[in-house]
Design brief:
Elements lengths: L7 H11 L4 E6 L5 E5 H17 L7 E5 L4 H11 L4 E5 L5 H11 L1 E6 L2 H7 L11 E4 L12 E2 H10 L12 E6 L9 E5 H14 L7 E4 L6 H14 L2 E4 L6 H8 L3 E4 L1 H16 L3 H18 L6 H12 L1 H7 L7 E4 L6 H10 L2 E7 L6 E4 L12 E2 L8 E5 L13 E6 L6 E2 L3 H7 L6 E9 L5 E6 L4 E2 L5 E2 L1 H8 L5 E7 L6 E7 L1 H10 L6 H5 L2 H15 L8 E6 L19 H7 L1 H6 L2
Parallel strand pairs: 1-11, 3-4, 3-5, 4-8, 5-6, 6-7, 10-11, 12-13, 13-14, 25-26
Antiparallel strand pairs: 1-2, 8-9, 9-19, 14-15, 15-16, 17-18, 18-20, 20-21, 22-23, 24-25
Helix pairs in contact: 1-2, 1-8, 2-3, 2-6, 7-8, 10-14, 11-12, 11-14, 12-13
């Protein structure tokens, strides 16, 4: 990155001028094809929306919110807001009206953009209830197209085209926006990030992976999450690559084939789906094909483990790469070179599998409070199972320390401690929450991540758990449950899991089966039962017990859950058991299943 920008506005202006005629965002239209806008067209929309926001009275330090899925309009609203030196507040479509109410009021939004009419009808009722909220803008107007009382995105663009307003240029320390944390144990907090925070991430990205205008991504991650926003909105503008916007969760594989990306930014769940899908097809293939495939995969993984491989095996792998692997990669557009994984732990087995197919897998680590990037594997240095080395260079000096003293007796081993981050990527603080901010910051400016971790001798970081989620068994031993939960969820028939054992003799686990897959498995094994009756079948219980037996090999003897129960419920955002970023709300899950949990002791 040759240009060192002072703000995201300066970066956007420079990039749109440099890449004026190049494709930027693509989306599926009614004709079933992807249509693309250029960087130049995007700049025109940003200019018009910035001018329109000025007309709505948006001034420096005002808040502009959005409740929407990823879209061209989302990105336009974001950078139009920056050009007023105002702060952008992103929310999820799948949150409740109570969540939106809290965030809009807590952040003091003046204007809120909403994706569709359903959300509009709910949010418009907050005007008058929230003192600062003056305007609700509908992005997709559909049935409200002729309703003059409804303010729309298109109307604002037309209004903004009438009178051009020059952008205001924030400083690097000025606030860019608020990213609200999921709130697994309470109300969400607004993470206040500056332009300099995001730029610090962008300054180091090119050290990790070589990509730019020649590259294309499929936008999968929600932009209300800092990972998706930094990777697919800000980095896109910084580096000049393009992104097609996925239609939805169920069309991702089809969309990948359509836009033929060279790089993907995704969470482990997607790579798990790819792994399960490929294995299912290979398992159904004729025996010679199946054996050839798994033999080649095994050779590739052995190479990555540093083994000496006989020449005949190397030749077999090369043949697989040019035939079977190439055919598989064509299903993903045939150009996919890099897969970046973040937000939660990636199973090393799945990472090696995807990597062996010919897609370079890079696992990274970060948090909303660090904009988000802290560490990453890169194209020169990778280690599966780790989250890479500290992402730092002369433009953005980031430092990570491990605090071994903060946990006292709860430290799992002498190598584990709390990960503390120093550098220009660390947030300004939690918006209007000085006490909460003070609680997570060290006296010398470090951010306490709340994550347990350790470095190996080569400087690769390993995340081993969350401090606030650990608990003590009756025998005084500490347990970090999410490590086991993440491992169990890697099984294709386990949708979710919850390990519990606070002050108990032993751990138990609740397992939420993936019912569609389980019923298919049952049918293949001569079991006609459905729903709750299926979960009570001894053969089904034996299936899940075997998966728990595999877990026994990976954990300490006192950590292993001695008993389990299967629950046929939907753990979702709507049910209140999951956060918008799909993390388990532990207190709510315990409250709902308290009687069942206690029956296992």
């Amino acid at each position: 990155m040759k240009h060192i920008f002072k703000s995201l506005v300066e970066m956007q202006e420079y990039s749109c001028k440099k890449h004026h005629e190049m494709e930027m965002y693509g989306r599926k239209e009614s004709d079933g094809k992807y249509h693309w806008i250029t960087f130049g067209q995007y700049k025109t929309m940003v200019d018009q929306m910035r001018s329109a926001l000025t007309g709505l009275g948006v001034e420096p330090e005002d808040k502009v919110g959005i409740i929407s899925r990823n879209s061209v309009e989302w990105s336009v609203c974001c950078y139009a807001t920056f050009g007023r030196k105002a702060h952008f507040v992103s929310m999820y479509e799948n949150q409740t009206i109570e969540d939106w109410h809290f965030i809009i009021e807590d952040s003091t939004c003046k204007v809120v953009f909403v994706h569709n009419e359903k959300i509009y009808d709910e949010v418009i009722t907050l005007v008058g209830k929230i003192a600062t909220l003056k305007h609700v803008v509908l992005v997709n107007e559909e049935h409200y197209v002729n309703n003059k009382k409804v303010l729309t995105f298109k109307q604002l663009l037309n209004k903004g085209a009438e009178k051009f307003v020059e952008p205001l240029y924030p400083s690097s320390t000025d606030t860019m926006g608020l990213i609200y944390t999921s709130g697994t144990t309470g109300k969400p907090k607004g993470v206040e990030l500056s332009h300099g925070n995001i730029l610090a991430n962008l300054f180091v990205i090119t050290d990790l992976i070589d990509f730019g205008p020649k590259d294309r991504s499929l936008s999968i991650l929600p932009w209300a999450h800092v990972f998706g926003q930094t990777a697919e909105v800000h980095a896109l503008l910084c580096l000049g690559f393009s992104a097609g916007i996925a239609e939805g969760a169920n069309t991702i594989v089809d969309n990948i084939a359509e836009i033929r990306p060279t790089i993907l930014f995704a969470v482990p769940r997607l790579y798990n789906r790819i792994y399960d899908g490929i294995r299912a097809k290979m398992d159904a293939a004729p025996s010679p094909v199946r054996k050839f495939f798994y033999k080649a995969i095994d050779i590739g993984e052995r190479i990555r483990d540093g083994e000496d491989i006989p020449l005949k095996d190397l030749l077999l792998l090369r043949i697989a790469e040019k035939t079977l692997f190439k055919a598989i990669l064509r299903k993903f557009g045939g150009r996919l070179q890099f897969a970046v994984s973040g937000a939660s732990a990636l199973n090393p087995k799945i990472g090696k599998f995807v990597d062996t197919l010919g897609i370079t897998v890079l696992e990274a680590y970060g948090l909303s409070e660090t904009s988000p990037l802290i560490t990453s594997n890169n194209i020169r240095e990778r280690r599966f199972g780790s989250v890479g080395k500290v992402a730092s260079n002369e433009y953005a000096r980031v430092r990570v320390e491990i605090d071994y003293s903060v946990l006292g007796e709860s430290v799992q081993s002498c190598e584990d401690g709390e990960v503390i981050v120093y550098g220009p990527n660390v947030m300004k603080g939690y918006y209007n929450r000085p006490l909460e901010t003070k609680a997570v910051m060290t006296e010398d400016g470090g951010f306490r991540t709340g994550d347990l971790g350790r470095f190996d001798q080569d400087g690769f970081l390993y995340i081993t758990g969350r401090i606030k989620e650990q608990y003590k068994l009756e025998n005084g031993k500490y347990v970090v449950p999410n490590v086991m939960e993440d491992q169990l969820k890697l099984h294709p028939l386990i949708s979710n899991s919850f390990v519990y054992g606070t002050n108990k003799e032993y751990n138990i686990v609740l397992l939420v089966p993936e019912m569609v897959g389980l019923e298919k498995w049952a049918s293949e094994h001569g079991i006609s039962k459905k729903g709750e009756a299926l979960l009570q079948d001894l053969r089904v219980k034996d299936l899940f017990q075997k998966e728990l037996d595999h877990l026994k090999e990976m954990v300490k003897h006192y950590e292993y859950p001695r008993k389990f129960a299967l629950v046929n419920d939907d753990w979702s955002i709507e049910s209140g058991l999951m956060t918008p970023t799909l993390k388990v709300r532990r207190q709510q899950v315990y409250a709902k299943y308290k009687e069942l949990i206690e029956s296992l002791y």
